[in-house]
Amino acid sequence: MDIVIIGLLLGGTYALMAMGLQLQYGVARIMNLANGEILIAGAFSTFWFYSATKASPLLALFLVAPAAFVVNWAIYRVLIYPLVRRAKSQGKLEVDSILATFGISFIAVGILLAIFGGEYLDYSYLSQPIFIFGERYGLNRVVAFLASVVLCAGLYLWLHKTRAGLALRAVSVNPSASGLVAINVAQTSAFAFALGGAVTAVGGGLLSMFLTFDVSLGVVFTLKALVIVILGGVGDIRGTIIASFILGFAETAVATLIDPGLTLAAAYVLFMIVLLVRPEGLFGRRPA
Amino acid sequence: MSSLHLSPAEIRGLIISVLLFAAAAAVPLLADGYPLQIAISIVMYTALATSWLLFSGPTNYIALSTAAFFGIGMYMAAGGIDVVPYPLLIVAAGIAGAALAAVVGLATLRVSGVYFVIFSLGLAELVRQIMTWLQHVLGTMSGLYVTVDRSEPMYYWQLLLLTAVIFFVGWRIGRSRLGFALRINTARAKVVLFVISSMFASAAGALVAPRWGYVEPVVAFSPFLSFQVVIMALLGGTHRLWGPLLGVIPFVLVWELIAIYFPSQTTLLLGVCFLLIVYVIPNGLTGLIENVIGKRRKPITAATPAVPIVIDASDPAARPVVTAGNK
């Protein structure tokens, strides 16, 4: 029971960070390996805001989101878009963007190290227990979970009920055909990349309410988000949400039953299974 | 059966390679101390970057698993040093690396290249977690001592020999049916290449382990190594077997300076290196050199590059514009 609820709370918070990567990879078609560093930056900024003001970390998210949006938009415009234009094929773009986002992630780690140092950072906010079915859980986990659910639901509705959301989904399905129906693909991709970055950073802010962070963890979160996106199916938001819960459960089960040091192994086992059984993911479209 | 009919250009290439290796083998006779340490670094990274190229050059899949296999090699050496004779351990390390590479390759290389890259990105961390856990369960110490009596020149010659083997294998692959299979890009050819490439990385780990003396998970599986190897190979260029060598030498020298003068900015500068390579020299130094040569003697060279070793199969767009006769 313990595992189910902690897994549910963790998975719900993972969902938001994975949605960010989904927007960047599924819509803008950029495999952003600096995603985890954006998450860490969001977590650190939230930490910094909370230590400075003692106001609720949730308020920090209103600053983190627009800041991350602007930074990611600039990254796309300045660094990624020239690669998109130069690429002769999707394969070449993939190699280039992987290398470029590596570069960005290392630079981000370097900057974060210079600002925050290499120590573990955590803060205690709402650490009083809350009782669910007679068991104690950290209230901060529950609050982060609820905030994530609200944001995910909002994002889902926005994608499915508005014209802008429709444009994003159209680019995700077929960029060249979207261009034919008067969607500005370059602008939409830049927007999706920026929005994805903002969503990931907010996800980091929420995770920082109950997890301890240090700079080197970025890669691990990039991997988690990637496993979720691939497991759920690239371009499918429902899949991402369900896959987040699967990863949340798997990690919690491994951490409780075997060893907390093996959470990445849990993600890798899931990854292996998907690749062997259903490479397109739970809800993915088989490539034509 | 691939017949050994060597063209004059190939014979020339072979003679030059043998002479270069002989010259390289003489280095410990002339240098010791700090210069020899640098030379050992250069040879080690040449071995790693060239073995990286064996797989990533033809397939265009950026493998980030060097650290994982290197670490496995170190651990094989450290774990068996009291039980098995050291030369056998190097072979065993190669086999262990090959086995893991086969599993990873069979699972990931049938699908998309991106998934392989992602998988390889976390492989070192995964093996590190499992190693740490195993040592915890078995109740051994987190680190292991490796003591083999070897002098510095010995390490150098061992690594140089490994490098020579890697070059020879790479050259043979280019001439063989495997190299041909890569042109059609079959999954099996990719798996075989990944296994070969990883085997060499593990063997290098086993060769270097005693020099470090003490092996522990955090050091042995440091992901930094994977990225450095990729950068060096890309800097040199991935279209020629000797490309990584051209990248390794300047990178090791510059990195020594960076480690001395900017020890806390290494990560940041590594990132800058990545961006520079992607935006400024996407075809590496060999690409630059061949561009210059290709332009100068445009009418003469028609085809057959001097050392046709690594055939770039999956993506024709990524081939260098050296065959100037085309236009």
Please characterize this protein's 3D structure.
The complex is a heterodimer of chains A (288) and B (327). By secondary structure, chain A is mainly alpha-helical. Chain A has a single domain (2-277), classed as ABC transporter involved in vitamin B12 uptake, BtuC. Helix content of chain A is 75%, strand content 3%. Chain A is built from eleven helices and two strands; from the N terminus they run H-H-H-H-E-E-H-H-H-H-H-H-H. Chain A has helices spanning 2-27, 35-53, 57-86, 90-116, 139-161, 163-173, 175-180, 185-207, 218-232, 237-257, 263-277; strands at 129-132, 135-138. In chain A, strand 1 and strand 2 (135-138) form a beta hairpin. In chain A, helix 3 runs antiparallel to helix 8. Chain A starts with a helix and ends in an 11-residue tail after the last helix. Chain B has 327 residues and is mostly helical. Chain B has one domain (21-326): Orthogonal Bundle (ABC transporter involved in vitamin B12 uptake, BtuC), CATH 1.10.3470. Chain B has a two-stranded antiparallel sheet with strand order 1-2. The two termini of chain B are 36 Å apart. Classes of the chains: A mainly alpha (288), B mainly alpha (327). The interface between A and B is large, with 45 and 44 residues.
Question: Which key features would you list for this structure?
Answer:
heterodimer, A: 288 residues, mainly alpha, ABC transporter involved in vitamin B12 uptake, BtuC, two-stranded antiparallel ribbon, 11 helices, 75% helix, B: 327 residues, 71% helix, globular, disordered C terminus
